[in-house]
Amino acid sequence: MKILVLNGPNLNLLGTREPDIYGHDSYDSLVALLAARARELDVDLACFQSNHEGALVDAIQQAWRDGVDGLLLNPAAYTHTSVAIPDALRAVRLPAVEVHISDPDAREPFRRVNLVRSACVATVSGHGLHGYLEALDLLVARLRDPAHPEP
Ligand code: DQA
């Protein structure tokens, strides 16, 4: 089973970026955390981060061509502005779980606009980096058993 993890703008700065909101762990430590859980789950996992909307759209399209089974996606600020990212998710019809480190709904009003959620099978928000592990567990359970209930 192949899973792709996509992280959007500024998530390469994890650890130094607003640590009171996003914590002190780096992007590399997030990748290591996910790689360790992927080994436990026996899935093939790759991670990609970009600060560019089009690069994320390209990665979603390429995932489909490469036979990826499902996506974990933190679109970061593009959550609130992008039409192209949810359109790409709908186009490839791969199951995607949306992840946010913080809880955008509990922050500034502009973060309550979410254009990506409706193109995803589930959302995990506000659980820090651990939320990525929850999202991965959920996605893999769902791929292994399509009847797996949503959270
Ligand atoms: C975020 C929340 C977004 O509102 C913000 O723009 C981000 C990170 C999160 O993981 O909590 O960059 O997606």
Quick recap:
37% of the residues lie in helices and 17% in strands. The protein has helices at 19-22, 27-41, 53-65, 84-92, 130-144, and strands spanning 2-7, 44-49, 70-74, 96-100, 122-125.
Considering the chains and any ligands shown, give keywords for the structure.
151 residues; alpha/beta; Rossmann fold; 5-stranded parallel β-sheet; binds 1,3,4-trihydroxy-5-OXO-cyclohexanecarboxylic acid
Global structural class: alpha/beta
Domains (count)? 1
Supply the CATH class.
Alpha Beta
Strand runs, count: 5
Mean pLDDT: 96
Residue stretches low in confidence (pLDDT < 50, at least 5 long) are none
Q: If you consult CATH, what is the topology? A: Rossmann fold
Helicity range: 25-40%
Relevant CATH superfamily: Dehydroquinase, class II
Series of secondary-structure elements, N-terminal to C-terminal:
EHHEHEHEEH
